[in-house]
Specification:
Number of helices: 6
Order of helices and strands: HEEHEHEHEHEEHEEE
Radius of gyration: 17 Å
Structural class: alpha/beta
Largest sheet: 5 strands, parallel
Number of strands: 10
Distance between the termini: 26 Å
Strand content: 15-25%
Helix content: 25-40%
Length: 200
């Protein structure tokens, strides 16, 4: 349908039809394991959508996700999907100049970042040359000047309702920076009719 939105029409629908159906099994090298049902994913993504909204992240804002394979990545993607902010996934191996280029090229106003791999250090260095960042949120160890993702999102409601303003159709959903084998990376844009996309 013209108003298709993956978060509402797939994830939340599964949560309604079969809430205990397993949606995600996550583990890491330290043998930590989490199993999430579709009901869990709906609730966590709604909490995070409310958290992001309260911090001023809104429809059309560009949000860089540097979350490796933390399970918070999927919840954040769905939260952004529901509220209409544009998710820009990125590797934690970026250098300072890579961050600066992305911040300026896309006009990024928020970043959700892992505390691993020294990524937040590089972000803070890059921000010395960019003044458009309104929200810095970290997953993992606490860091001065950054909001603590794991502590803060739990404070918000599990309800996040679809409205007439909810993103769909030709609204931009995702942006990716290409590998940039020659010259600077280009931006690939995907809308809510995923997987259609174009470069610009």
């Amino acid at each position: 349908p013209d108003n298709f939105n993956f978060g509402f029409d797939v994830i939340d629908k599964y949560a309604e039809i079969d809430p205990e159906k397993i949606a995600l099994i996550w583990t890491n090298d330290e043998d930590e394991k989490h199993t999430f049902t579709f009901s869990d994913v709906k609730k966590y993504s709604n909490k995070i959508a409310n958290f992001f909204t309260k911090k001023g992240i809104k429809k059309g804002d560009k949000v860089l996700l540097v979350l490796k394979r933390h399970y918070q990545f999927w919840f954040s993607m769905l939260a952004l999907n529901k509220l209409g902010a544009i998710a820009i996934p990125a590797t934690s191996q970026l250098k300072e100049h890579d961050y600066e280029y992305r911040f300026k090229a896309a006009g990024i106003s928020a970043i959700i970042c892992t505390s691993e791999d020294g990524a937040a250090n590089k972000v803070d260095e890059a921000l010395k040359n960019y003044d458009g960042m309104k929200n810095k949120i970290i997953v993992g160890e606490e860091r001065s000047g950054w909001r603590n993702f794991n502590e803060e999102y739990t404070l918000y409601s599990t309800h996040y309702n679809r409205t007439k303003e909810s993103p769909c159709g030709n609204d931009t959903m995702l942006m990716y920076f290409t590998s940039g084998t020659s010259g600077y990376p280009k931006i690939a844009v995907h809308n809510y009719k995923y997987p259609l996309g174009h470069f610009h």
